[in-house]
Amino acid sequence: MNIKKVGLTALAGSLVATSAIAGELTLSGGAKLSYVTKGGTLETTNVVASGYAMDQEISASGSAELDNGFTISLSHGLSGSGAEGSDTSSLTLDMGDMGTLGYNDTDGHYGLAGLEDKIPNAYEQANDGLGTAATIATMAKMASGAGFGYSTTVGGASISVGYSDNLGASANRSDGGQDITSTSVDSSSSVAVTYAVEDMGLTVFGGVGTEGQADGKELDHSTMGATYAFGPATIGYQINDEDDSATGGTDYETEIFGISFMVNENFSLSYGEHNTEKSGTSVDQEAESIQASYSMGGMTVNIKDSEMTGVAHTSTNDHETTEVILIFAF
What we know:
The protein is mainly beta and about 325 residues long. The protein is built from one helix and 18 strands. The protein has an 18-stranded antiparallel beta sheet, with no helix packed on it. The model is unreliable at about 1-20 (pLDDT under 50).
């Protein structure tokens, strides 16, 4: 009797534990402190009370293995900026050799959107943080947004496919809801391929896609580029094209170049450029950025100094930003 009782108790405890594990979500977040200064003609008023800021993002994630061996994963990004609810959520089904299927309700970088900027850098892409809410910096790129993604590997090449019925979907994203905040648009789709040439240090990538617009027309996108690593240095170059199918529509071409250098296993440097041409104007938008990253134990220090001229293709618009960010791992 005692043996049976112990066995039943253990079984009951096992069932309870299994049930709890299946529904568990793990919270994680970054410990980041930054200091930023900005300048240029777009910073016309001195209204900055402080350049210091702290990261306020928390992520809740979890996964479970299904009976057929597939793994389902869930992630919720929780905004700490005062907005209620989740700022982005994703659901991913890992099917092993059959590939991975995912859905993101806000900002899925599937397909060509994942190749926005593949150039090596020590911290961030060269145009990050440049341009303002009133004067937005341009770039030829496939938009990211709510939609589905599928990825797999064929013959050593990584393939990513993206599909969305409305990249601009922004509300009623809970199950059973419908987004009615934007007009109906054509669907968007793209495919991206990345291939690393074995033992050469060379990686080539490219893709094509179409992006639906509210006017019923489409934006045709294409990207091609490559990175090459030799010793402690890596260089990269890519071109993004965006062509508006509407008569008289605006076309963009973005050229990206960068080089990074590992001084040692803890210290890296990089230089990058981000230049965009716009049809119908002779003013090019040009950005450049110098960056450094240094790690010591559980702390990383990232520094960048970036500037952009001809912001939004206006000759009198220029913008500058310098950022120092401390990241702690614990």
